[in-house]
TrEMBL record:
Residues 65-131 form the RNA polymerase sigma-70 region domain. Belongs to the sigma-70 factor family. ECF subfamily. GO terms for molecular function: DNA binding; sigma factor activity. PANTHER family: RNA POLYMERASE ECF-TYPE SIGMA FACTO (PTHR43133), RNA POLYMERASE SIGMA FACTOR (PTHR43133:SF51). This is RNA polymerase sigma-70 factor (ECF subfamily).
């Protein structure tokens, strides 16, 4: 069954290519459900080499999606809280990756490039939400808190839930800095590439975020 799903997905890829090199959301959704065991490419350079090899574009892209889906999903989910929002943004991320991967010059690591796209998509989504609803920052924070309270993934009696409430109280970009460092354990050098910010500024931002979270948790 897995192999047949992969064949069906490959056919969808070729249809997308003939329709202007755009990968429809329906194809991305199908891809995210594929459980086929793909070759274990630990090295991103090997994956990119496979992608650029004639006749292997869709296979290389599939491996990238399968390798990074979970990591990117949780990065997005921590910023947006809501599962449906996170899933929609994740699909948009992979559509952008599909459109732009040919132009990726490898002057940064692949996963750094992917995180940059995902982060920018999250910030754009939050900005669009504010514009649509004419919400203030406090209203946005309240909305995220409401989504958190309704999320079965988090138990209101557990420390993690309180931590999430503290993180939501941070300004958006500071929240990104904290999540990348705390959850993804990303080095400051790579965070600098993702956020186009100096390492010194990122260290200061993370320090301030930790202090705010500690104060929030202490007074919660």
């Amino acid at each position: 069954m897995g192999f047949l799903l992969y064949i069906e997905y490959t056919q969808c890829i070729y249809i997308a290519l003939y329709q202007g090199d755009r990968l429809p959301k329906a194809v991305i959704s199908k891809l995210l459900t594929i459980t086929t065991a793909m070759p274990d490419y630990q090295n991103d350079k090997e994956i990119l080499a496979l992608y650029r090899k004639e006749g292997n574009k869709e296979k290389g892209f599939t491996i990238i999606v399968q390798k990074y889906t979970e990591r990117l999903y949780w990065h997005i989910r921590r910023l947006l809280v809501d599962h449906e929002d996170a899933n929609d943004v994740l699909q948009n991320v992979f559509i952008k990756v599909w459109r732009n991967l040919d132009g990726f010059r490898e002057d940064s690591q692949l996963y750094t490039w992917l995180y940059k796209i995902a982060t920018n998509e999250c910030l754009s989504f939050l900005e669009q939400q504010k514009r649509k609803s004419v919400l203030s920052l406090s209203d946005v924070e309240t909305g995220l808190n409401n989504k958190l309270q309704a999320d079965a993934h988090f138990d209101a009696n557990k420390l993690e839930w309180k931590l999430q409430k503290a993180i939501i109280s941070l300004p958006e970009k500071q929240r990104v800095v904290f999540n990348l460092r705390y959850y993804d354990e990303m080095p400051y050098e790579q965070m600098s590439q993702v956020l186009d910010t100096s390492e010194g500024a990122l260290k200061a931002s993370y320090h301030h975020a930790v202090k705010k979270i500690e104060d929030f948790m202490r007074n919660a």
